[in-house]
Design goal:
single chain; mainly alpha; 3 helices; about 50% helix; 2 strands
Length: about 130
């Protein structure tokens, strides 16, 4: 009793039910073992990374002028990495900002005038001068 489907023939006699063997061990965590905990303020084994910072001893031993010069060198290097907008982008965002400022100024002016009108008429209705 076999059927032929296209190029593939399937026979019911050849099919065997798949069985899963239950293992006696519990499955491992997806990432393996969790990292070992390290006390705060200590470096991990191998020294670790200081996050790009210099040790305090190197900063403390340099003079004020040395630190100031290093600050300006670092600032200059950081400014080179900045992604500066084009003149067209600056123009477009300036126009959008001006339109938003004018819109909200007119809106707040209108709300202020409505509240002033309502308060004035309420005062007159209640017999104020």
């Amino acid at each position: 009793m076999s059927e032929k489907l296209g190029e593939v023939s399937v026979s019911e006699d050849e099919l065997e039910p798949e069985t899963e063997e239950a293992s006696a061990q519990a499955p491992e965590a997806p990432g393996g073992e969790p990292p070992k905990k390290i006390k705060r303020g200590t470096l991990p084994p191998g020294g670790g990374d200081l996050g790009g910072r210099h040790g305090r001893s190197s900063i403390a031993t340099t003079s004020f002028f040395g630190r100031t010069a290093q600050f300006f060198r670092d600032t200059r290097a950081e400014m080179r990495r900045v992604s500066w907008p084009t003149a067209n982008e600056v123009k477009n965002t300036t126009i959008i900002t001006l339109i938003a400022v004018i819109f909200f100024a007119l809106y707040l002016f209108g709300v202020d005038r409505v509240w002033a009108f309502l308060i004035e008429h309420l005062r007159v209705l209640l017999g104020g001068s």
